[in-house]
From TrEMBL:
An annotated GO BP: putrescine biosynthetic process
Top-level taxonomic group: Bacteria
GO MF terms, alphabetically ordered: agmatine deiminase activity; protein-arginine deiminase activity
Keywords, sorted A to Z: Hydrolase
PANTHER family noted in UniProt: AGMATINE DEIMINASE-RELATED
Signal sequence range: none
Entry annotated with the keyword Hydrolase: yes
Stated name of the protein: Peptidylarginine deiminase-like enzyme
Length: 345
């Protein structure tokens, strides 16, 4: 590798911290705020067992409130850093920085246009979040590159070796006027990757991201892909996720070998007032010494955690209750963004 060239790290590479934004009554969480705060409390407690946590809050009042909740949970305050900024919602996987790194310890914060998942929701404050964090000096001397092209962090997966995995459905929705070849070139240039692997199949009912890859398939070390499968032939997802599994089986590494595939178990349907919720186990968070895995109160929770842990050996597996999150159509990975080592130390 040329040390002066930027690269997009894999999520399992060394990190400084995890970045989140605290839910409040001005976000879409208002109707069930107390319930979702419990998930955030457990998430914060899990992260701070292993590394630092940066928490974006809307104002001093919210900061005091969240501090009190975490203190009562016994979270180490030395692991916490607070930043006051306005935001529309708390899905920082999609509005937070996608960070590139070179071999000399320099960083580039890649700031794509955030459109509220293709204009579904207002997102002006979220689109300005990265610039606000930069202005407050959160990322030291990292360079900040604005890219006037819609992309969310949940829509891409990196193996840290120059390969990107994404879904056609999502990016075609964001850019219906562009061909796959045009989007491929933009992704390779803006994210400093060598190739892009596209999936044409895979979706989850109740997901409003238009099939973000982080709900479907994830890279793991040693050419492994962990993916959400569906073994219930009566379920509406069975054929589509089966077709996605076949696509994954047909992919090849840069060495021309098939990837080693690890399917995840399927949670029973979770309904909210008749609406199917997207309970994906693929939406887990990788940290330095741990993997945080979503739990939905389903019989498949423990097996999913075991299989995900096996794909990231040497890391402690911690289950985080995420049923409250899928009410708003996302899960654990969606509300977090990892910050590579050296970026926010």
């Amino acid at each position: 590798m040329n040390d002066t060239l930027f690269q997009l790290p894999a999520e399992w590479e060394p990190q400084d911290a995890i970045l989140i934004a605290w839910p409040h009554a001005g976000t879409d969480w208002a109707e069930r705020l107390a319930e979702v705060e419990q998930t955030y409390i457990e998430l914060a407690a899990a992260v701070c067992r292993f590394q630092n946590l940066l928490i974006v809050v809307a104002d001093a009042t919210l900061e005091d409130h969240a501090r009190g909740l975490l203190q009562a949970r016994g979270v180490d305050p030395q692991r916490l850093r607070w930043i006051q900024l306005p935001y529309d919602d708390t899905w920082l996987r999609d509005s937070g920085p996608i960070t590139l790194r070179d071999g000399q310890g320099r960083f580039q914060l890649t700031d794509f246009r955030f459109t509220g998942w293709g204009g579904k929701f207002g997102a002006a404050q979220d689109d300005a979040l990265i610039a606000g964090l930069v202005e407050r000096g959160v990322f030291g001397r990292a360079s900040h590159r604005r890219v006037d092209w819609a992309l969310e962090g949940g829509g891409i997966e990196s193996d840290g070796q120059g390969t990107l995995l994404t879904t056609w459905k999502c990016l075609h929705q964001r850019h219906p006027e562009q061909s796959r070849e045009e989007m491929d070139a933009i992704l390779r240039e803006s994210l400093a990757v060598d190739r892009v692997l596209w999936l044409d199949h895979g979706y989850l009912e109740g997901d409003d991201t238009d099939a973000h890859i982080d709900t479907l398939a994830r890279f793991a070390p040693d050419d492994v892909i962990v993916y959400q499968a569906c073994d219930d032939v009566a379920d509406i997802h069975h054929a589509e996720l089966g077709a996605m599994g076949a696509e994954l089986a047909a992919l090849r590494t840069t060495a021309g070998k098939p990837y080693r595939l690890q399917p995840l178990p399927w949670a029973r349907p979770i309904l909210d007032e008749g609406r199917r919720l997207a309970a994906s186990y693929a939406n887990y968070l990788i940290m330095n010494q741990a993997v945080l895995v979503p739990a939905y109160g389903d019989a498949a929770d423990d097996e999913a955690a075991r299989l995900i842990g096996a794909a990231y050996p040497g890391r402690t597996v911690v289950q985080v209750p995420c049923r409250a999150l899928i009410w708003q159509n996302g899960s654990l990975h969606c509300i977090t963004m990892q910050l590579p080592a050296g970026l926010a130390g």
